[in-house]
Amino acid sequence: MNVVSANIGQSVPRIDGFAKVTGQATYAAEPHPPGLLYGVIVNSLIARGRIEAIHDEAARAVPGVTEVMTHHNRPHTALFEKSYVDGLGVPGSPYRPLHDAEIRFNGQPVAVVFAETFEAAREAAMLIQVDYERWPHNADFDAALHQKYMPSKTRSNYVPPKSRGNASEAYALSPVKIEGRFHLAPEHHNPMEMHATTVIIEEDGALTVWDKTQGPQAVQAYLASALSLSGKKVRVRNPYVGGAFGSGLRAQHNVFLAALGAEMLKRPVRVTLTRPQMFTHVFRPEAVMDIALGADRDGTLQSIIVEGVTDTSRFEHNMENVVVWGLIGYKCPNATADYKIAPRDTYTSSDMRAPGAATGVNLFEMAVDELAWACGMDPLAFRLHNYSEIDAMHNMPLTSNALREALLQGAERFGWNGYPPGPGSLRDGRELIGHGMATGIWDAMFSPTAARARLTSDGRLHIATAASDIGTGTYTILAQTASEAFGIPIDRIDIELGDSTLPECPTEGGSWTAASAGAAVWLACQSLREKFLKALAKSENTPERIKQSEVTLTEGELHGVRDGSREVFSLQEALSFIGEASIEAEETAKPGLRDKISEMRKARFTHSAVFCEVRVDEELGIVRVTRLVNAVAAGRIMNPKTAASQVRGAMVMATGMALHEESLMDERYGRFMNHNFSEYHIPSHADIPEMDVLFVDEKDEEVSPLGIKGVGEIGMCGTAAAIANAIFHATGKRYRTLPIIPGA
Amino acid sequence: MTQAAPTAPCRLQINGEDYDADLPPSVTLLDLLRERLGLTGTKKGCDHGQCGACTVLVDGRRVKSCLMLAVSLPDAQVTTIEGLSRKGRLHPMQQAFIDFDAFQCGYCTPGQILSAVALLEEGHIRSREEIREFMSGNLCRCGAYNGIIDAVEHVVAQRQRDEAGEAA
Amino acid sequence: MRSFSYSRPASFDEACRVPERTRFLAGGTNLIDLMKSDVERPAHVVDLKSLSMDQIEELPDGGLRLGALATNAGTAEHPLVTGRFPLLASAILAGASPQIRNVATNGGNLNQRTRCHYFYDPDMVCNKRSPGSGCSARGGRNRIMAVLGTSESCIATFPSDMCVALAALNAVVRLRGPDGERAVALRDYHRLPGETPWIDNVLQPGEIVTSIDLPSVSFGEHYTYLKIRDRLSFAFAIVSVAVGLDMESGVIRRGCLALGGVGTKPWCVPEAEALMRDRPPSHSLFRDVAECILEGAVADRDNAAKLKLAPRVIERALWQAAEGTPQSQTCKTIR
């Protein structure tokens, strides 16, 4: 690795790269303790009802099978429902795997077969027969809309929409208006690594649980609580996570069932979901948004009316912030929104990359594009004219807002030249060419986080925090942070993440990890540096000439300057002066009084401007995205290389959202039928053009301690709309449902 | 059904080392590598040939190891990601993947790399478009596609320079 | 996957003498997939790969004999195939992924089973998987299902790309079984579902595909394989068209046409092909051809779009062939 500079802001190659390109990185399904049992889950084939009987004789007769675990014979678990509430805290009645005979969704685990080999467990699982008493169910979203409601207890992160002015009157009076129902299909996260858990039983009986999760401490707390393991040591590890995109926010049933199996059988256990089983848990909710917008003839937005509904299960009230984005981001004097959730008999929908905004921003920006065209206005000029410098819904200033620069710089990079010629006017051979754009917005969040820094006698700096790197580049940016904060080259830093025993860190998600863990590592390194220099100054063994020098720590060496002459010591030497094998400091980054006041007075967001070119063969219903430019304003960029990859990755997912991805519910059975990679189409290499990501300069000392806003979600927000808007520009046809399949 | 599953002989060379054992025929090459040999660098992303994460080289050609019975490959030479780097020295494709940030979570990465290594030999590398098409059997949910194509193009160019140098 | 015994016969005769519940294994890319999904449950798997049937040879008439065990990739890249039957090479390259094509065989391609969601999910009733149990694809999520050759009991699409080209090329399937050898036209090899959708083709127990013969053609550049799918690569066809035209001084002497993605088998209608005999290419002719080959097409709940899309793809493909501008499988622009 040829590291020129490892400081913050440099494009340092991923420090976990070597492990990943050589196959040495260990994921959840990969530790192999002796005596490992394989667990394979059997799923319910009905959506609602109860189990009458489970016939497991044939399964038990398969050589190598050790147990078939069902609700009849499972070990004791927590008595109270509240013990099963996981870190995400979705209100309602949490699903308890193998709790009783009741079936609440299609694909619900009804049994787990454990065997000495994977092959035996897989075969035996096929031999389980279950008799059901079937109850009526509804899995149809349109039917569920008739039962939409607002739960009495809302999710803690729910932002209720706040009306202003008189939107319906303003709409009625507006000379230019559009209205329509916009729709997003349900989607599944489908990380490449399937959810899996390996439970290892340590010599002292403690459980070490390797799980695919975004929050090892949340899973640890969940297992301790739900399995009533409070008397037992449980450690959850996830040093490498093969993608998650939100599917690892909740403790999934595989971890519960693996730990339960290990408890029951007193053996180490591995449970890996199959790809079809990846369609039996969380998914991005299906959504409809009824949007009405009104404007003056000069393109001044006068009215925003949004009504949105997303789906949830019959037993939990999952909510998303889908309707508020337009009210926040546009300076419209009259605006109102309403949000409800619609229950159906499926597993509970859940957060998927940019939850709420991926749905709400994209669908709203499609409507804004319609209005801009209705006003006869360049969509870019429309945004520049109407976007809000402040949080227009809460009437709060922002800590920073470089959206204008993003719009202008993105437009320049793309070559967006004023008002594009009318729809359907650009053609190359059989293909219509379209240009479209949209703005993006996402929360900039910060959560209290702790980190530990330890300098050891080999001169290496060890950083530890219970963060998760799910491909986000967290290892690398934390190493950069430590390198700069402590003054040591990056190749002498070890970063330890993904372990519930490490200093406290919230579950990875929402783009808050860089800001939060980054701040914690910075503080810990600063603290360690001070402690180290103080100890050095105090120690009897430190030579006097050093004590009388001005001592600084750079590039992993101590420099003592006295009377113009400089003396250099290695960290190993310096530690030996103190007489300690190592020295460490732990700090928690949390909002201080000033930050709390700031949070009350100011809102914080990342912004983006996305520009897109598509080519559409309308006759054959083929859309190709041929160019994408995304200008992102996200405060301080820790590592432009990995940050750009984050944004590009989200743009790929958004391309899928715009063109391909749809989980097909067969409402007769309550099952998503295209439950595989062959029929649930995520974009392939051939679908993705060069994507140009630029970061707009945005200094923001207030948003978080290091000025970081985060980049994990923003690429989702606006990109799908830019594609949809480009398709309109190409064809002159409006599609209000994502994914867009022309001609279908 | 209560009889022990019949076994069949499995004889392979994996990363240059002989493997010889009797296996239940239902063991796939992928599960042999991951669960019986500890070679977990080969990844299971779908187990149905639909994602490419399990790509390995068999007799130099790229295949999806999840769709092969281990017993059905007599005397085959299997190369996995663990066998690609020699004595700790990365294959140029591995290095290029690091340099061009051609991955995020790393889970599809070994399959992408082996697929790309095979692609060099197949020669479908005349344009970015062609590389994209012939890499499309390897899905990446993190969306590292730009970086992957950059990495492959870089190694192609490097090779062409090396070959031109040798010729001169 | 359920337990099974595995054997590698040394000869054809040994291979043909198989007990009940045997499946032949070639590349295995479909069979192993189906066994993992618990759709196929063979008690015995007989691996044919040691039988030497992987040659690609010239036939006296200028045609080719493709060994049943030659891989899809080996076939598509073979100079005799790219030189004489670029339509076939193109269709193969439009299918699956490079890794699959490196393993999947020509014989296996013929015998692959449908892509229906409901067939692949053993929790669902399916006449093809479980005779007489019903068809859950009807009235279900069936955007990908067939509109031609369907029956009350089955609407599953035949998934192959290669076979669509083979049908257009009037290939002949050569079989060998306990009762000796026989040859079947590719167009007659696959069966319509009718009341017995569990029988995919005319293969008898113990019978093995040994080769596929391609009669000589003289299409020159007047061919194309045009495949429309939901993403730009590595996806099954929504509609695909294989065309080869024998052209002479701007007139079609003979037209060969087959459809994929829309039928329960590779779809050919000789009357549609006959319409093109000795006619110059024209919009009205190609419209008539499309109308003729699609006659009787019926949609179910989600797949009506295929009825609109198919004639457009057919006409576009016919023009590509007529103008001698075959579709590239790399470049995604469609002329």
Task: Itemize the secondary structure elements and their pairings.
The complex is a heterotrimer of chains A (744), B (168) and C (335).
Chain A lengths: L16 H5 L15 E7 L5 E7 L1 H4 L4 E5 L32 E2 L5 E7 L2 H9 L2 E6 L6 H5 L21 H7 L2 E9 L11 E6 L5 E5 L4 H11 L7 E4 L15 H13 L3 E4 L14 E9 L5 E12 L12 H5 L4 E10 L13 H18 L4 H8 L16 H12 L12 E2 L2 E13 L5 E8 L4 E4 L9 H14 L5 E4 L16 H26 L5 H4 L2 E5 L2 E6 L2 E6 H8 L3 E8 L3 H9 L3 E13 L4 E12 L6 H20 L5 E2 L4 E2 L18 E5 L23 H13 L5 E2 L6
Parallel strand pairs in A: 1-11, 7-29, 9-10, 13-14, 18-19, 25-28
Antiparallel strand pairs in A: 1-5, 2-4, 2-6, 3-5, 7-12, 8-9, 8-11, 12-13, 15-16, 16-24, 17-18, 17-23, 20-21, 21-22, 24-25, 26-27
Helix pairs in contact in A: 9-18, 12-13, 13-15, 17-18
Chain B lengths: L7 E7 L2 E7 L5 H8 L18 E4 L2 E4 L11 E4 L12 H8 L9 H14 L5 H7 L10 H23 L1
Parallel strand pairs in B: 1-5
Antiparallel strand pairs in B: 1-2, 3-4, 3-5
Helix pairs in contact in B: 2-5
Chain C lengths: L4 E3 L4 H5 L5 E4 L5 H6 L7 E4 L8 E3 L5 E4 L4 H6 L1 H6 L1 H8 L4 H4 L4 H6 L5 H4 L41 H7 L3 E6 L2 E6 H4 L18 E7 L8 E7 L7 E12 L2 E10 L9 H5 L8 H11 L11 H18 L13
Parallel strand pairs in C: 1-3, 2-3
Antiparallel strand pairs in C: 4-5, 5-8, 6-7, 6-8, 9-10, 10-11
Helix pairs in contact in C: 5-9, 12-13
Q: Any descriptors?
A:
heterotrimer, A: 744 residues, alpha+beta, Aldehyde Oxidoreductase, domain 4, Aldehyde Oxidoreductase, domain 3, five-stranded mixed sheet, 29 strands, globular, disordered N terminus, C: 335 residues, Enolase-like, domain 1, three-stranded parallel sheet, 27% helix, Ald_Oxase/Xan_DH_a/b (chain A), Ald_Oxase/xanthine_DH-like (chain A), AldOxase/xan_DH_MoCoBD1 (chain A), Molybdopterin-dependent oxidoreductase (chain A), FAD (chain C)
Termini gap of chain B? 67 Å
Q: Which bin fits the share of residues in helices of chain B?
A: 25-40%
Number of domains of chain B: 2
Q: What do we call the CATH homologous superfamily of the largest domain in chain A?
A: Aldehyde oxidase/xanthine dehydrogenase, molybdopterin binding domain
Helix segment tally of chain A: 18
Description:
Chain A: It holds the Pfam family MoCoBD_1. Chain A: Residues 22-136 form the Aldehyde oxidase/xanthine dehydrogenase a/b hammerhead domain. The complex is a heterotrimer of chains A (744), B (168) and C (335). Chain A is of the alpha+beta class. Chain A folds into three domains: 17-24 and 447-590, Aldehyde Oxidoreductase, domain 4; 37-136 and 192-244 and 248-279, Aldehyde Oxidoreductase, domain 3; 144-187 and 283-445 and 599-738, Aldehyde Oxidoreductase, domain 4. Chain A has a seven-stranded mixed sheet with strand order 3-5-1-11-8-9-10, with helices on both faces. A five-stranded mixed sheet of chain A has the order 14-13-12-7-29, with helices on both faces. In chain A, helix 9 (357-374) packs parallel to helix 18 and helix 17 packs across helix 18 (719-731). The model of chain A is unreliable at 1-5 (pLDDT under 50). With 168 residues, chain B is of the alpha+beta class. Chain B has two domains: 8-83, Ubiquitin-like (UB roll); 92-167, [2Fe-2S]-binding domain (DNA polymerase, domain 1, Orthogonal Bundle), CATH 1.10.150. Chain B contains five helices and five strands, in the order E-E-H-E-E-E-H-H-H-H. Chain B has helices spanning 29-36, 92-99, 109-122, 128-134, 145-167, and strands at 8-14, 17-23, 55-58, 61-64, 76-79. In chain B, helix 2 (92-99) packs across helix 5. The model of chain C has no long low-confidence stretch (mean pLDDT 97). Chain C is of the alpha+beta class. The relative contact order of chain C is 0.13. In chain C, strands 4-5-8-6-7 form a five-stranded antiparallel sheet. A three-stranded parallel sheet of chain C has the order 1-3-2, with no helix packed on it. Among the domains of chain C are: 5-49, Uridine Diphospho-n-acetylenolpyruvylglucosamine Reductase, domain 2, CATH 3.30.43.10; 223-322, Enolase-like, domain 1, CATH 3.30.390.50. Chain A binds chain C through residues 43, 45, 62, 119, 122-123, 126, 276, 429-431, 615, 617, 619-622, 624, 659-660, 664-666, 668-669, 671, 673-676, 678-679, 681, 683-687, 741, 743-744, and chain C through 1-3, 36, 38, 115, 117-118, 120-124, 136, 139-141, 143-144, 228, 230-236, 305, 308-309, 312-313, 316, 332-335.
